[in-house]
Amino acid sequence: MLKLSRMLIIPMLFLGLLANAQNRKLDGKIVGKNNEPISGASVSVKGSNTGAIAKEDGSFSLEVKGVVTLIVTSIGYNTSEVPVRADQSSVNIVLTATEGLNSAEIVVTSFGMTRSKRALGYSVTQISGDRFTESRTANLGNALSGKIAGVNVSTPATGAAGSARVVIRGGSSLLGNDQPLYVINGVPMESSNLGSAGMWGGNDAGDGLAAINPDDIESISVLKGNTAAALYGARAANGVVLITTKTGKSRKGVGISYNSNVTVDNAIDFTDFQKQYGPGRDGAKATLAQDALDIGNNHWGSKLDGSQAIQFDGKLRPYAYNGVGLNSFYQTGISANNSLALTGGNQSGNYRFAVSDLDNKDVMPNATFKRQTINMNVNSQLKKFTLAVSGQYTRQKAKNRPRLSDSPGNSNFSIFMFPNTVPFDAITGATGKGDLANGNELRYQGNVFQTNPFWGAYNFFRLDQTDRFLGNASLKYNVFDWLYIQGRVGTDFLTRDDASYTGYGTAFKPRGDFFETFTTIREDNLDLFIGANKNIGDFSVDVLLGGTKMRRKSETKGGGGNDLVVPFVHSVRNVAAPALSYGYSGLGTNSMFAQANIGFRNYLFANVTARQDQFSTLAADNNTLIYPSAGLSFIASDAFKLPDAISFAKVRGSWAQVGGGAPNPYSLNLTYGLVGAGHLGANLGAINNGSIPNQGLVPYVSSELEFGADIRFLKNRFGIDIAYYDRKTTNDILATGISATSGFGSTLINIGELSNKGIELMLNATIIQQKDFKWEASFIYSNNRSKVLSLGKNAAGQPIQFINLEESRVRRERIRHIVGQPLGMIAGYKHATDSKGQKIYNADGYPVATAGYETIAPARHPISGGISTILTYKNFKLDVLLDFRKGGHVVSGTNYFAYQFGLQNETLKGREGNFQVSGVTPAGASQTWTLGPDKIDNYYANYANVTENMVYDASFGKLRQFSLGYTFPSTMLKKTPFESLSVSFVGRNLATLWSKVPNIDPESSYTVSGNSEGLEFFAMPQTRSFGVNVAVNF
Amino acid sequence: MKHILSKSAAWISLALVMASCNKEELTTLNIDRNSVSEMDQAYLFSTATLRIAGEYENTRANMLYAATMIQHTASTAGYFSGDKYFYSAQYSGAYMERHFTDVIRLFSNAMNKTASDASQSNVYAASMLLRAFDLHRMTDLYGDIPYDQAGKGLENEENWFPKYQAQKDVYAALIRDIKAARDKFSSSARSLGAQDFIYGGDVAKWKKFANSLLMRIAMRMSKVDAATAKTVFLEAYNSGGFTSNADNAHIRFAEGPQGINRNGLNDGYWNTYKYSRDCKVSKTFVDWMKANNDPRLMIVVGGTGNPDAAATWNTDPAAQKGMPNGYTTANIVSALSSADATAYTSISTGRWIFSMLNLKYMDWSDPYILQTYAEVQLMAAEAAVLGWISSDPAVHFKNGVEAAIKNWTGFDASFARSQSDIDAYIAGRGFAAASTEDKKRLIGEEYWAATYLNDIESWSNWRRTGYPALTPTNDPNRWEANQIPRRLKYWENEISSNPANYKAAVDRMGGDLFMTKVWWDGGK
Do residue A676 and residue B497 have CB atoms under 8 angstroms apart? Predict the structure, then answer.
């Protein structure tokens, strides 16, 4: 690193000596449509770092040389590019107010460089930060939902502090990480999910995006295609999300902005369970307390008749519906997010300093999330040098991230399946924490692995605290007007302390446990590049050449164990046999890149890039990969005279190849490690690898062809932006499942091939525009068709038909990639049929499942989209976002257990006997069975065991965001210290407009892992929020 | 201008080339400082040994299934699936799920790395023998299994989808490998020493274990291939099996510090997970011990009542009461006397009326039994009854029963029983005077009692001999039949991860069901 920084400085100094120029002064004025001066607008000379800020009267002056293009930006106005002739000494610039949604014309692209959208041969969507601040969530990723065509956000139901899953254009890889690269102010950020629930339970541990305060975001720009991402190399194979934080503005004095957002959150209860029959088995309720305890959640008893019936604790209570629903347990959550920013600046620099505080109380009792951020951004210009420094420090403290999936400690499981006659106060316990007087867990049902929900919430504990610094500094030196060199260092450093315990007295772990892990992750990026911009006759040339060095390391130190020695004391030193763990991993990439953009008469643009990556994680002789890209953009409306109705028309096309998936470090070789502390004086050894190592791995390659058009009509009032892409990934690295009887469950091989083809559509319209009233709407739609083309051959030389991904705790299903099918199919048992397709039932009349797993339905939604509409009337503004998905499925663990336990509404059929089932016997003879009440439970248990009966169409539409705001007119504020003041009423997830999944939210996955998409098993309920947002500027 | 351009370009290029081409530094990053690429294979052998007693599969295959199927224990809890003949994919598949990856691959790897090194021949031989021991259990549990290719995925791509071999061929391979291992043990090679948790490196004892295991294997196949069985048995018997309890093959465990240091079966029964709170000693077993005045009664059972509530705890032998197999809390009352039913119905006594397992053999540090001298003597008694060997079956029977009772002191010193009680018990069994069939019954019953806690072995021997005579239970929710299962269903993962070979095995065996008989049980 040192070496490189030295190298960065030397050529800078060298070139600095050679600078010279013949400058002239250019005066200008920036006004709005009604000739009102726009103070604070920023003016910069394209391709250089010369710039100025407009004064209060909108005037500015600049030193320029020759023909230049000015880029003028100001909040609330469209960015404008203004060409200035060589003989011009003054210029008058008129900015138009921002119209419609997603209307930015200057967008942030690779390495944080702004470029005019018209020159791009690929699709980039940029949204401004204010679209994230009102109806916000703790995790920024979730706020992207429904806003960008081709970006599919799923919001796993993991609690308020949980991670988001963002997938662009269906992802490039069959396995592993299919989420995009996040880049803040030009520097990659470590954003991976730090842990999630699996089939055996666990909790979401959060991700990097949750560290960002939406109030600090100037804009988010999404590079969807390979071309856009080609300059980021391997890590960009799944697209790039570029986050630009706010900078200061030149102004008089210090500007103060304060934003306060307070929402109340409630769990959305989708359950609609039967309320006619109570706990019991074979049609009868318990007559013994012991039996009532064993029966637990089984609702196969008699009809609820209000009679006195014995319960688990030996007490007689009415055998009647208890009225307990999800919200009897979940509490009203509150999120308060307060941000304060100070800004200022002048011609030679600007700054922004912001602090924020998020305080969230989750709907899960005893779960909270707190986040404080400090964000700083300083830009300064000194002659030919431009220095930009931005940094963020975040402290996050998440208490009791809810346990999900498998039942131990998962309060969601217990409350969803709660016996419908047991009153809630019978289980709250001695101190309201699900405890007995002796401090042990109060059990109301026999299975020790189903924890009392209050015990789960109060006596299972986890706390994680993350301190994170994210920062970068760049120094740019303009050698000439047209040539600059720039160096940048960025670092992302986090330390995290995770502590957890299972309480002493927990039924399945009577002596409890305690574990604590310290993690540090650090990633450094070092960039150096040289760039040139020059206009030569009709041509404009823009060239960039650079190199990047990335190093990442993570280290974990942990301790803990089972069995607390002194009850209720939670410390690493208070477990019977503390075990220590230590983990380290380091990796790096060295890269070089080059880019050239050539424009002709400002209506035809060609763009070529190349990047080479070298990976530490691959064998030295095949660790290099080159990514090329090329694109073309043609502004037909400037080149030809088009009908008047067409105000703008652009067609674009591009091709690019990126790659990725260099494996985790150290996975090329077989390694051994020691187990624990040995045994009876001997050493214990183990094979570290869970997968058979493969020395010959190479990165996978993904190539993409993209075409698109951007056409606007009637003075830009209507616009359509359409893109078509065809992406193919080859040589994907797969952990191919092999038979575990070989000793290993998988091996890594370069064999996968998949294709993603899709269209993305964005329609913008200003439907009504009158003096006081404006109605804008936008519609986005994307349809991604993925297909697994090949999974290679197995050791026996036969083509592999599918690979297994995850399964839920039900263990009667698998998410699979299957050749010829879309990514992520749900496989499981179907109802067995005879050759004529008639359903087979066994001798008892119970459904017979197929002998093995069959393909059932695609899990992932190919179609996603959203409808945004903004109505403005005088100072009122109504902003509504609908969000929809279509085509995916979910295999529901909640419904599986609802059937097993007799809670599902469907299980009412046949309770009183004479339940008739018609089908064929295994031998093929037609038969009708009549089932008595003693068999109905087995019938539905077998019914639920037929996986396809538990698979539901997960398509949905939701009213995702709502805000109604009022901005006080400046006349009203004249006598106040406020520059501006606006108040909004905001809401999130206000309504589910359509869904076909009974009892659960269609978005109820318990993990962000793509390999589990389509599995549902007792995650948190989604929440509905209402609140108020107040924004003030002083 | 040109000059400047070319000069600056040269500088930049130089910087970039140097920054990017530092290949050596990159490669160094990929060296894992936390692990090694070579390791003493004896360390792997040691880990694999301990994992034979892994908690996950021992609670599932042994405790939840075999022990209740064979009516050593009973439970009203539904997850104790074995005596109600419920099918749980996870419990049924547990042994396969864990042992190929946790046990077999380590033994296979140790064998592969030491095969050509004479100085390591004890590591090789002990790995080969324990690999055979574990795969023998596996084939007895499931039928056809991968044997030759099992756990050898690292060696060759051919082994990524191991073929299931017919059980007949697995047995032939077991005999081949155990004999080869026996011949490979060498006192001149490096001793296993402390890495050996069974014999501490005693090569002579390992050879006795090999012979004892061969006898077990021979006896198992006696029903379907008596000729081979006899040949194998005699060769092993003459070569020399266990001669006292001091030779017994058991894995020595400790209190910790970690899970791997602990007897996994006991970890499941009582210590970490305490599943045994939900299960009791079976009425079949308690009644049998009571009827025969068995001195082991108060070893096997701890008492009635709640061990955590001293006032309720009753260790009077006469008060001991086994729990009948095959009931749930809803219908067990129908199987009880009216007094017991009343007591059971009371919330304060409830299921505490049944005798609990004795906590004294449930310590983490208690031994995990693989095979005992008692079993060898009982097999010899059977061989004598069959006329394979000429010695007096009654002597072998006496030796076997005596050894079985005395071996309990390895769990707890208080389990010592007086010689007179032991002699009286054996005399009471009336072996010498019994008919040939009754002799077989007595041997079968004693083998069943002697292999308590090693329930997989009990169950296998019951399947072969039909002794002790057990009455199947009658739960209406049983999965396949109200019959004691003849095998476990394969781990379902194999259906999708090794489909062709799984299917071939199922086709060959005629099904993948509880009632599908394995080859030595009269199946295909």
Answer: no
